[in-house]
Amino acid sequence: MGVEGCTKCIKYLLFVFNFIFWLAGGIILGVSLWLRHDSQTTNILYLQLGDKQAPNTFYVGIYILIAVGAVMMLVGFLGCYGAIQESQCLLGTFFTCLVILFACEVAAGIWGFVNKDQIAKDVKQFYDQAFQQALMAESDTNNGKAVVRTFHETLDCCGPDSAMGVITPLWREDLCPKPDSILKTLKTSSCHRKIDELFSGKLYLIGIAAIVVAVIMIFEMILSMVLCCGIRNSSVY
């Protein structure tokens, strides 16, 4: 015997929320894959300075997002099927998966909040080391110049946040694009600022997606429990 009345409305409401949740999982999976293969981040984070690799903390977070998106799509499908079939077992499994996902999202959010400044800081330190090597290099055998030029071309910047960074375009045309005028040189953004903008913008996008998904998950947990209780009560009669 199927559910009736308000419980039936909750059943279809849960199905709609699960479909949205499934779509959100697909969007997160797509966005995370885009962030993983974005030309700006890949050009920078694949760089190698001697034996030292560019910091990969950002990619750790991206791989977590890819896994979360894939799991969300699977759990969303499970919730849709459980709601339509009115299966207490499937709904109970769905609720358990949601609780685990929600706990993982909270843990990932705390980790991201703690490391949000560290990601840009590590990349800036890597750039500063390459910049110093490029200034002192007497030949192109050291790949510091190549690393610095990649930063400058990818982010359209030149030099760090220092007096050395301001005057670099004037005397090191092998590192920075030749300016058309002194005014253009003064307007050139420092690479430190561009690195902050690059990662803060992407982390802001991830944060918005995480908040939206968390709200949907809370509603789904409530609806799944209400529907499960309604199915149990209706089976008595």
Structure description:
- This protein has 237 residues and is mainly α.
- It has one domain: Cd81 Antigen, Extracellular Domain, Chain: A.
- It is 79% helix and 2% strand.
- The chain has a two-stranded antiparallel sheet.
- Helix 1 runs antiparallel to helix 3.
- The radius of gyration is 25 Å and the shape is rod-shaped.
- The termini are close together.
Write a concise synopsis of the structure shown.
The chain has helices at residues 6-37, 39-45, 57-85, 88-136, 144-155, 163-171, 182-187, 191-234; strands at 48-49, 52-53. The chain has 237 residues and is mainly α.
**Strand order of the biggest β-sheet:** 1-2
Task: Average the pLDDT over all residues and give the rounded result.
Answer: 77
Question: What radius of gyration results from the CA coordinates?
Answer: 25 Å
Q: How many β strands by DSSP?
A: 2
Strand content bin: under 5%
Number of domains: 1
Overall, the morphology is rod-shaped
**What is the tally of helical segments?**
8
**Elements, N to C (H/E):** HHEEHHHHHH
Question: What structural class do helix, strand and pairing data support?
Answer: mainly alpha
- The low-confidence parts are none
Question: How far do the termini sit from each other?
Answer: 8 Å
Helix residue percentage: over 70%
Return the CATH class.
Mainly Alpha
- At the fold tier of CATH, the topology name is Cd81 Antigen, Extracellular Domain, Chain: A
GO molecular function, one term: lipid binding
InterPro entries: Tetraspanin/Peripherin, Tetraspanin_animals, Tetraspanin_CS, Tetraspanin_EC2_sf
Family: Belongs to the tetraspanin (TM4SF) family.
Membrane topology: Multi-pass membrane protein
